[in-house]
Amino acid sequence: MSSGGRKRRAPPTSHPSPATQAKTQALSQEDDFVDEDVFLNETLITEDEESLILRDIEERQALANRLSKWTRPALSSDYVSQSCSVLFQQLEIDYVIGESHKELMPNSSGPAAIIRIFGVTKEGHSVCCNVHGFEPYFYISCPPGMGPDDISHFHQTLEGRMREANRNSNVGKFVRRIELVQRRSIMYYQQSSSHPFLKIVVALPTMVASCRGILDRGIQLNGLGMKSFMTYESNVLFALRFMIDCNIVGARSLSNCQLEFDCLHSELISHAPEGEYSKMAPFRILSFDIECAGRKGHFPEPTHDPVIQIANLVTLQGEDQPFIRNVMTLNSCSPIVGVDVMSFDTEREVLLAWRDFIHEVDPDIIIGYNICKFDLPYLIERAQALKIAEFPILGRIRNSRVRVKDTTFSSRQYGTRESKEVAVEGRVQFDLLQVMQRDYKLSSYSLNSVSAHFLSEQKEDVHHSIISDLQNGNAETRRRLAVYCLKDAYLPQRLLDKLMFIYNYVEMARVTGVPISFLLARGQSIKAKQKNLVLPNVKQAGSEQGTYEGATVLEARAGFYEKPIATLDFASLYPSIMMAYNLCYCTLVTPEDVRKLNLPPESVNKTPSGETFVKSNLQKGILPEILEELLAARKRAKADLKEAKDPLEKAVLDGRQLALKISANSVYGFTGATIGQLPCLEISSSVTSYGRQMIEHTKKLVEDKFTTLNGYEHTAEVIYGDTDSVMVQFGVSTVEEAMNLGREAAEYISGTFTKPIKLEFEKVYFPYLLISKKRYAGLFWTKPDNFDKMDTKGIETVRRDNCLLVKNLVNDCLHKILIDRDIPGAVQYVKNAISDLLMNRMDLSLLVITKGLTKTGDDYEVKAAHVELAERMRKRDAATAPNVGDRVPYVIIKAAKGAKAYERSEDPIYVLENNIPIDPQYYLENQISKPILRIFEPILKNASKELLHGSHTRSISISTPSNSGIMKFAKKQLTCIGCKALLSKGNHTLCSHCKGREAELYCKTVTHVSELEMLFGRLWTQCQECQGSLHQDVLCTSRDCPIFYRRKKAQKDMAEAKLQLDRWNF
Amino acid sequence: MGMDSEKNSLCRLQCSYASLDEAFEIGKETYRGQQYSQIYFARLHLMRTLLYSLVSQWKPQTPVCTVLGLEQGKECVIVGTLYKHMKLKPCILDEYSKERSAVPLVRPHNFMHDDDYLVLEDESGRVKLGGDLISPSVFVTGIVVALHGKETGAGDFSVLEVLEAGLPPQIEFPLKSREDKYIVLVSGLNVGSSDSNPLQLQLFIDHITGHLGDEKEQSIASQIVHVVIAGNSIGIPRGLVNGQNLASKDLSRIAEPIKELDILLNQIAAGLPLDIMPGPNDPANFSLPQQPLHRCLFPGSAAYNTFRSCTNPHSFEIDNIRFLGTSGQNVDDLEKYSDAKDKLEFMERTLRWRHLAPTAPNTLGCYPYTDSDPFFIESCPHVYFVGNQDKYESRVIKGSEGQFVRLISVPKFSESGVAVVVNLRDLECHALSFGTQFSS
């Protein structure tokens, strides 16, 4: 550990402010992410403003006292006396531009980049460590024959060009120095081990990009003329550069530095996350939610609508209950047990109280649902609208304002998303919505449906038009709102705990070596700094490079297999291929070199896709080496996981092995990513071509060996093969036999592959329904006596644009077919459901289709059902109509012949209230038929005829709408309950003909009533349960809730049925 | 046998009868969009007034608070509705859950779990209850109690003592010297179902109507003054009625057992007064209070003025002795969500809680009343019976103010062949067992 005794520095306000500096405009826009220089003094507020804030804080002493009990633990004397070095877990790294530190860096002056590392010690103290002396740099390859004089000349020329490009910058020296170093490019196999490179060190991080632009375009050199240079490592973000060079990985423990401290980068020690250092520091996690009072018919806008409540929960990492629960409300609010309710008279006070709260609590991680896009920007913009200049000081750096900027994040994996980024210095933001959207495929990402999915809990949903009413009521109604707000703040925390996000992401950061915030905002990338290798900054050729052939899929022999199907899986196929064949940037031999170098054939591999790579005896590849490390580490983590007893330790290790697995697989991924850091299609296409070869090879071996000719009882058959697995029907009838043969086959075939490629036997599917490639379902067995679960792939169970009916129908059918082994039962079930649909007996909530309204009607090019409906609803009642951002639920109703589907969408509530008939044919043809036929076609002959056109489709019942024109002219008359004949005067219930069947007809009516009553009771008490109160009416209007429409319908049906029943009492 | 043989004819004893079912009749009430919060509200108000009057003697020194008024560490008394948070409680949302578990759910007989906890709620808010004194296994959602305790730091209310409303006041038991008069309680006839034994049932009817046995037995039969059938008289095969349209053939099959029952009831009603209550399997509505079985189901017996179709729960007075009973739903539901040594204990608890069906509406279907709670027990019955139980049990409990209550669990007749006879003179009771097995 390095020596302590560093002097504690005064708050960074002491910086003399250099004259205004324009931000260097990043020249290269093609990069996804570029460094952005933020000048410390830009975000700081001026002296007089500060004194104003201080005064303001004094005035609010009472509040401050209230908040003070939540401050972090006081420093022990060791820390205060600065006699010990500090060990802390790093969470976030960024950099600012400030004046170089005079004591630490006596030789330099002018603005310099200061790396800030934020973290937490194991005692729970927060730490900000300012690291000085780390300079941005990149490489270019040194033109041959360049001597020291040429370099200094080159330096001057470059400096001049830089000055031209950044005219209004007052940096004294742009290019600090240029050194001659020996490095080697990672691209292509080279026989000599290193070449001369020039390391260009610049003053500020953004200048890397600016300088690269100059060099790319070409520079006039003495004796060489105009020459452009390929730059190396010029697209590495500065913070990452620092982490790489100092060997720091994300979320790792570091020693040195105290609370706020300055040091030189050379004095940091990074500890590998093992043993003691793998434990998590007690982070403070703040989960919060705000409520705004929107105007009727409008989504809240920060320029108009006040923030009325902010609920906060703070939890220490590793504990299961929050230790702070409070809510800040505008206007009075009745107390809530176990919650600190703070009421204020003005919005300004609410906002400032929240700011003070953040200061006192000093959270390390801020979580919430949609906080990055909504809550945080809303607070900041609202403060702007109210002209509260002192509000946006939320970061760890004293008096530094947070910055808001629009960002887009795009990646092949996750698509392009627009979002706002609120940079809160030193606090990691972890927006559960973003994480959900990225890590899980769900039909809806509303907090309600996400918590229903993961926590099996429905959340009460209060429509934003009601929020204003509650706010304008009294202290009691505002309390109601506060309880709701608190629940919204609590759910993200519970999701975080339940899904172990902190463990998984911290481990991912440790493994990939990037800060957590990078993982969230930027996807994964992996760093490689090895052995003097440098990465060229390859100009992206965009789509010209084309794509390569993907993974192979063996033709699926669709069918319903009632014999066990053994599955042979390649363990980490792509990483193993890269290791087995030494595939890497640095082992790739260019076609010219193949001719020139005359490599002996025994030391090269020619891949099935035609590329040449040298074997490891000539040059060991970097990627295989990284992969070996990752896989070995995963093996270790898995072994440790088995040993581990402590649940927290287990969580850490499990997160780690998962992260290692993902990282190993992503190594292949970034060679193929055309917009990645260093794509190399030669590698990725070679990998997949090997993959295809192995699958084919396996199929051949299995079918050659396991035959009756070779003494086996049955001849094996490969029915399907996917990217890294092969499904084999060995023909045996028990799971146990299939398992034995599967193991035998795996072992036999593994022997024929180059190490470490390995075929493993994992599971048996029995029975197995193979529909087509990438679509199958089966029972999953890993032990011979009991199946583990039902496994489905590619079958309509989670598609967003399907109604619930499809999902339920498919699930129940699969259940009946696979688990109950009752095919006739499944057929009957489908028929019943179709009949119910045609007979108008289907529960409406099963038919609701939901789509998000992302923009207004005019912006859509094609007319869409949900957009048209939103428009129509706005005409009916603007206050309750869906707004942009809302999800619009609709059903398809019967309409005039030839009406377009988008004209036939209707609000389910409106349908219920007016008895509007739905269109069963639409549901039958556009929703149900395809998925159902897919399942049944391998099983039944004439599936379509049998299921969709049988006798059960003959009778149809359609309800009469109560709002249609013709009903205005209709006269209502009582009909006989038994036979629907019109009743003559004097009879109220039955016609004289049906009188004799009185008892049985009464039974029928009363049975109907009794069923509805049961449903009514169960539905409404469930809603009471969700809202968490017995004595208050249910307000919830969550249309995502599966029982919302049923509840409404039950209420309406009940009233009607009761009237029918009452007719008997005349 | 015939009546003509009895010259010195035995005369059936008479009694006075007054129905107290009015509170349980829904009448013209309709579903207008009202919710269940109102019945809880009404219950809390009724019970709170009562409990507040008791608290002044129970804890004269301790202040009474609302849930909102709790202050950390301060001892106080709070009154509110209990809510039991139950992990295993079946939930209608589960019907929609995406992943059906492959292993079929074993339907537990009882939904309790060690993690269950109680919450006390009033109009203002909820507080979680802690401490060992209040056991989640005894209490259920919907009971109103007074609690003495204090709020701990974590937002829990640590309970030091529990006050239940206790047995309600009772009208005086008529003391004048009396003769033996008997009331017969029977339930679960299940006419038409596979386990009903027509011969056994006929024996029962012949016995109480005095068509069986010698003169001595007939004289005992003549002392039976009233019969109460406590639910589940008809056993309609469940598979028949499932919401699908029925063929007329099936419809008439439903009507068969009803006709059969009508004939049987006809025989009873001809001889002595009869009250019939609807039960969970009868052709009546589902929610409590269940409304009387429609007279059109019994064209024959309904012609007698001795035939009364009553509500469930059913309350009446015979010779100024008060009866209260249900067809069993209230106790069956308690058994699913709480624990006791026998059915009688559940019954006793409902009396002490002064609420006939605390789990309604939470887990027991119930009409959404707006301004009253008909299940509140205002006056203590002398006889409290529950039908359709597994076996006959009976016991007397006494209250602090001299209340004296006979608790009876009436078994299902179709399974046990047992009816229960209560003597109005002293409320002694015994089982009347009918068997058709011949010992060899």
TrEMBL record, chain A:
GO terms for biological process: base-excision repair, gap-filling; DNA replication proofreading; nucleotide-excision repair, DNA gap filling. GO terms for molecular function: 3'-5'-DNA exonuclease activity; 4 iron, 4 sulfur cluster binding; DNA binding; DNA-directed DNA polymerase activity; nucleotide binding; zinc ion binding. Residues 133-208 form the DNA polymerase delta/zeta catalytic subunit N-terminal domain. Keywords: 4Fe-4S, DNA replication, DNA-binding, DNA-directed DNA polymerase, Exonuclease, Hydrolase, Iron, Iron-sulfur, Metal-binding, Nuclease, Nucleotidyltransferase, Nucleus, Transferase, Zinc, Zinc-finger. Its cofactor is [4Fe-4S] cluster. InterPro entries: DNA-dir_DNA_pol_B, DNA-dir_DNA_pol_B_CS, DNA-dir_DNA_pol_B_exonuc, DNA-dir_DNA_pol_B_multi_dom, DNA/RNA_pol_sf, DNA_pol_B_thumb, DNA_pol_palm_dom_sf, DNA_pol_type-B. The keyword Electron transport does not apply. Residues 1-31 are annotated as: Disordered. One of its GO terms (cellular component) is delta DNA polymerase complex. It holds the Pfam family DNA_pol_B. It catalyses: DNA(n) + a 2'-deoxyribonucleoside 5'-triphosphate = DNA(n+1) + diphosphate. It is found in: Nucleus. CDD domains: DNA_polB_delta_exo (cd05777), POLBc_delta (cd05533). Residues 1-10 have a biased composition (Basic residues). The keyword Iron-sulfur applies. Its EC number is 2.7.7.7. Residues 976-1047 form the C4-type zinc-finger of DNA polymerase delta domain. It comes from the Eukaryota. Residues 231-450 form the DNA-directed DNA polymerase family B exonuclease domain. Residues 527-939 form the DNA-directed DNA polymerase family B multifunctional domain. Residues 16-28 have a biased composition (Polar residues). It is an enzyme of class 2 (transferase). Heterodimer with subunits of 125 kDa and 50 kDa. The 125 kDa subunit contains the polymerase active site and most likely the active site for the 3'-5' exonuclease activity. Belongs to the DNA polymerase type-B family. This is DNA polymerase. It comes from Arachis duranensis (Wild peanut). The gene is LOC107463292.
From TrEMBL, chain B:
Residues 35-161 form the DNA polymerase delta subunit OB-fold domain. InterPro entries: DNA_pol_a/d/e_bsu, DNA_pol_D_N, DNA_pol_delta/II_ssu, PolD2_C. It holds the Pfam family DNA_pol_D_N. Residues 183-391 form the DNA polymerase alpha/delta/epsilon subunit B domain. It catalyses: DNA(n) + a 2'-deoxyribonucleoside 5'-triphosphate = DNA(n+1) + diphosphate. Keywords: DNA replication, DNA-directed DNA polymerase, Nucleotidyltransferase, Nucleus, Transferase. Its EC number is 2.7.7.7. GO terms for biological process: DNA strand elongation involved in DNA replication; mitotic DNA replication. It is an enzyme of class 2 (transferase). Belongs to the DNA polymerase delta/II small subunit family. This is DNA polymerase delta small subunit. It comes from Arachis duranensis.
